[in-house]
Specification:
Layout (H helix, E strand, L loop, with lengths): L6 E3 H8 L4 H12 L13 E3 L7 E5 L17 E2 L5 E3 L1
Antiparallel strand pairs: 1-5, 2-3, 3-4
Length: 89
């Protein structure tokens, strides 16, 4: 049985996260995930565990590894991985 998920378009994420500060990025993720996210929630692979789906993660990287979405911070960039051009929460 396939689990239903909310699909958020890549462009919508781009608009929402464009030019945000780090705290705002976490706040936006929190809004989507409906729970608090802190720096300690991100593991060494840059993953935030999905709150509802077991063995699913949202990836937040400290450098441009995936190059999909760049967040401008002073000397730091955050990337959110998209599967097939969109992220599934």
């Amino acid at each position: 049985m396939k689990k239903s998920a909310v699909k958020v378009s890549w462009k919508k994420i781009m608009r929402k996260f464009a030019k945000m500060e780090k705290d705002c990025i976490f706040a936006a993720l929190k809004e989507y995930l409906k729970r608090d996210i802190n720096q300690k929630d991100i593991d060494k692979c840059g993953r935030i565990p999905h709150p509802a789906l077991k063995d699913r993660y949202i990836l937040v990287y400290n450098d441009i590894k995936l190059g999909m979405v760049k967040q401008m911070l002073k000397g730091k960039n955050y990337t959110i991985e998209f599967a097939g051009g969109e992220i599934t929460f």
